Amino acid sequence: MSGHAQQGAASRRSGRKGFAALPALLLVAAGLVLLAQAAWIPAKAALAQVLLERAFTRTLAEGVPARPWPWADTVPVARIGFPRLGERYVVLAGSSGQALAFGPGHVEGTPEAGEPGIAVYAAHRDTQFRSLGRLAVGDAITVERRDRVTVRFRVTGRRVARWDASGLDPQAPGRHLVLATCWPLDAVTPGPERLLVEAVLDETAEP
């Protein structure tokens, strides 16, 4: 085989190897993009909580809702705390995708925490509510409302249900709180199931 023929054959083999490696390179690139997105979501939520804390502090001080940033379409309405875990988060009005991107949301149509019925807060499993799996029966949950009323709940249990079959009635007797997030907690793709942590108002707690 002449030198030109050998070079041509080598070039074709190199081209075939390059095409064979292309799917692997695309997979690596896609993986890097997904990793970047996974890191960005918690980082954005953490930064947002700093701004939400400032807005909620202004709300308490001035008595009127304060937007966390000028173009925000929601306002902070409460601050929820998990004392045993040393965590607390500002809760936004509404449970739209825009609201949940920055913090827990108070689900529309449910009462204020501590009022008659079932108040429902929802958040993503990879941000503020990643700790729901660590809450145990008997744990305290505190809620400081924008009207300066602070209420304390006690966890009574948890269960998993489809998003459209939770059985939650906002007008149920008693004063309850339910925290909801996607299930399983370690999944990376959306699913129809939700983890529901249920709590009841602690009547023995000091106001």
TrEMBL record:
Signal peptide: none
Pfam family, one: Sortase
Keyword Disulfide bond (UniProt): no
SUPFAM superfamilies attached to this UniProt entry: Sortase
Gene3D superfamilies the record matches: Sortase
Keyword annotations from UniProtKB, A to Z: Hydrolase
Protein name (record): Sortase
Source organism of this protein record: Methylorubrum extorquens DSM 13060
Taxonomic path: Bacteria, Pseudomonadati, Pseudomonadota, Alphaproteobacteria, Hyphomicrobiales
